[in-house]
């Protein structure tokens, strides 16, 4: 494996951050240890039919016990940074009380990362809401936004400037729409109006937490992570398909980004679906739009959309490359998305906080050959370089994921890792893609 880093390559810049990412519920396990309380995902997993094979997060990658060796493994990859999330149920297992054992776990982790010279990128909320808050309405209850700000205050006080970068939320679209609108994720509710109300409360929570985070960690960067799938009309010459694709982006992209950047929600939603419009109190949008230091963008695929009887419909194109999730591989849409957003908004610096793919990997004679994933990374890194050339202010790139883990409603059936996890033995094995990444990072540094 050999990589070319021409003079013009943006990846030669030593301040461009390369990292790997995970999330607490997906890797930690130990869901009943050290006073951790039940989260909405524990409850969802225990509900028959919600997660493939009835999988749950009780053991996952056992990272709670193996964290030290996992951090050594991250160091071996040669990355600059590690993106992880904090389990709120470990920090506040009882409402209003702080669990020092939970805090100590993350303090140890962050200290060790700094010792290893790896920059910690912390996401405060990656979907594991304490169940006691869901029992009072979860993200449909405005009070949850204030509870999150309390949690963010506690956590940023505890970790302070030891952390390089804090994100309030990972993919509020998934928490709101998959959780409260379509029912595919915890807590499993299905109502359009719920989805938009939950989305507003998540963004409000971001806005309420931000000033506290800045006060507690003045040297760290503070932002949020959004996921985007740009929408393409099935027939680019058909106005109805064009409008449908646009409406898909109004919901999936602009509903989340526009309030953060411009303190307004897209009017297209109010015009076309007035019943979806949430309750917004005076002052909310000003809070939400407080300046952020960075925007995290997660990209996996694009949508192809046609106008249907009841609104935009997703079309599954034949003959295109797909991942094990069934998602189309489309690196071109990645650069187009970044350039389009750059032209439309006055964005802060951007980090690609997730990008990667699932494949049906298996361990054969001690090796995992995942050529498709190596190609996927190569092509998406090229797409990032194209966007940078076009003027997008991109500062870093994180592969999703460090290792195979609990893929939400798909359980352990889908493998996104650079590192293979044999769940029976908890053995970790570098896949071909991990070696690819390792080599890429070495050559970039001229090693
Ligand atoms: O595994 C998830 C992650 O938790 C959030 N972003 C998408 C990934 C792949 O589905």
Full CATH superfamily name: Glycosidases
The low-confidence runs, each spanning 5 or more residues with pLDDT under 50, are none
For the termini, the CA-CA separation is 14 Å
Order of helices and strands: EHHHEHHEHHEHHEEHHHEEEHEHEEEH
Report Rg. Answer: 21 Å
CATH hierarchy class name:
Alpha Beta
Helix-residue proportion: 40-55%
CATH A-level architecture: Alpha-Beta Barrel
Count of folded domains: 1
Oligomer: single chain
Shape: globular
Report the CATH topology name: TIM Barrel
Total of DSSP H or I helical runs spanning 4+ residues: 15
The number of distinct β-strands equals 13
β-strand amount: 15-25%
Overall structural class, as computed from helix and strand content, comes to alpha/beta
The biggest sheet amounts to:
8 strands, parallel, barrel
Strand order of the largest sheet: 1-2-3-4-5-7-10-11
Q: Average the pLDDT over all residues and give the rounded result.
A: 98
The hetero compounds bound to this protein are: 5-hydroxymethyl-3,4-dihydroxypiperidine
């Amino acid at each position: 494996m050999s990589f070319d880093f021409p003079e013009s390559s943006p990846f030669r810049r030593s301040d461009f951050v390369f990292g790997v990412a995970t999330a607490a519920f997906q890797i930690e396990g130990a869901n009943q240890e050290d006073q951790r309380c039940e989260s909405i995902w524990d409850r969802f997993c225990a509900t028959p039919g919600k997660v493939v094979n009835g999988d749950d997060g009780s053991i996952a990658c056992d990272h709670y016990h193996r964290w030290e060796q996992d951090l050594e493994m991250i160091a071996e990859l040669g990355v600059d940074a590690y993106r992880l999330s904090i389990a709120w149920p470990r920090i506040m297992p009882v409402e209003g009380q702080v669990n020092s054992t939970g805090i100590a776990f993350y303090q140890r982790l962050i200290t060790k990362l700094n010792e290893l010279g790896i920059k910690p990128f912390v996401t405060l909320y990656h979907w594991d809401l304490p169940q006691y808050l869901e029992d009072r309405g979860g993200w449909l209850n405005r009070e949850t936004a204030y509870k999150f700000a309390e949690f963010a205050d506690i956590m940023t006080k505890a970790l302070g400037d030891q952390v390089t970068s804090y994100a309030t939320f990972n993919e509020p679209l998934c928490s709101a729409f998959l959780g409260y609108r379509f029912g595919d994720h915890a807590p499993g509710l299905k109502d359009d109006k719920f989805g938009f109300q939950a989305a507003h409360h998540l963004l409000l929570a971001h806005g309420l937490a931000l000033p506290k985070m800045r006060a507690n960690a003045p040297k760290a960067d503070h932002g949020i992570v959004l996921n985007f799938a740009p929408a393409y009309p099935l027939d680019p010459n058909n106005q109805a398909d064009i409008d449908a694709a646009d409406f898909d982006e109004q919901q999936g992209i602009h509903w989340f980004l526009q309030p953060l950047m411009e303190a307004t929600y897209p009017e297209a939603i109010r015009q076309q679906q007035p019943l979806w419009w949430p309750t917004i109190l005076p002052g909310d949008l000003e809070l939400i739009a407080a300046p952020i230091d960075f925007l995290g963008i997660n990209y996996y695929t694009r949508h192809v959309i046609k106008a249907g009887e009841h609104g935009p419909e997703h079309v599954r194109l034949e003959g295109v490359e797909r991942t094990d999730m069934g998602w189309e591989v489309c690196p071109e849409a990645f650069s187009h998305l970044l350039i389009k957003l750059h032209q439309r908004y006055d964005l802060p610096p951007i980090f690609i906080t997730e990008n990667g793919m699932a494949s049906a990997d298996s361990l054969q004679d001690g090796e995992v050959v995942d050529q498709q994933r190596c190609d996927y990374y190569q092509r998406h890194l090229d797409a990032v370089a194209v966007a940078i050339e076009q003027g997008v202010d991109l500062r870093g790139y994180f592969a999703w994921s460090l290792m195979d883990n609990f893929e939400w409603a798909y359980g352990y059936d889908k493998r996104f890792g650079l590192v293979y996890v044999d769940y029976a033995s908890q053995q970790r094995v570098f896949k071909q893609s991990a070696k690819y990444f390792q080599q890429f990072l070495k050559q970039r540094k001229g090693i």
